[in-house]
Amino acid sequence: MAIINATRDDFDRALLGTLGLMGPRSGEARSLLVGDLRAGHLSVLNGGSGTDTTKTRDSRRVLPVPALLLPWLTELAGDRPKSDWMFPSPRRKGAPIAKQYANQAFTRAVARANEDREEKIPRYSAHALRHTFAAISLSEAEADLLSVSQAPGHARPSITLDRYGHLSKRGLAPLMAKIDALVAKAS
């Protein structure tokens, strides 16, 4: 949250919030249309709207928008037409923001967040927010693997497991305790 809270404006906050709180690929976030936000959900097309090539192109996933992020996206969308880019380029009329913009917004926010921190946040790229989402979902939120794999659009849960499985706090001991409780209840 330190990075998102350190953004310079509402536009960057909504962009980095989408990346960090929902875990889409950068190209998918940059390719969102205003009409993709409906009834508290965001419809994400794997591969975006043609501005970026991603790994799984033939599916759309509908994700609930976190309560913290929803007002930011709603305000950003305003009353613009559904066919407008959610994150329009400030320089290229009728185009979405470029990948470089997302990375620059991330770099600016990290620099601001680091101003008063003893332990500095490393500067990677906006893509790091996607990894942070998956890592926190498994390690801190203790979300189930299938849900975590669906949010960022991994083609298979095994992809998520291979990359982030070591972070899960779930293990055999809690599983066996639940099995014991279920068996005891059934006996």
From TrEMBL:
CDD domains: DNA_BRE_C. Keywords: DNA recombination. The keyword Membrane does not apply. GO terms for molecular function: DNA binding. GO terms for biological process: DNA integration; DNA recombination. Residues 1-177 form the Tyr recombinase domain. InterPro entries: DNA_brk_join_enz, Integrase-like_cat_sf, Integrase_catalytic, Tyrosine_recombinase_XerCD. This is Integrase family protein.
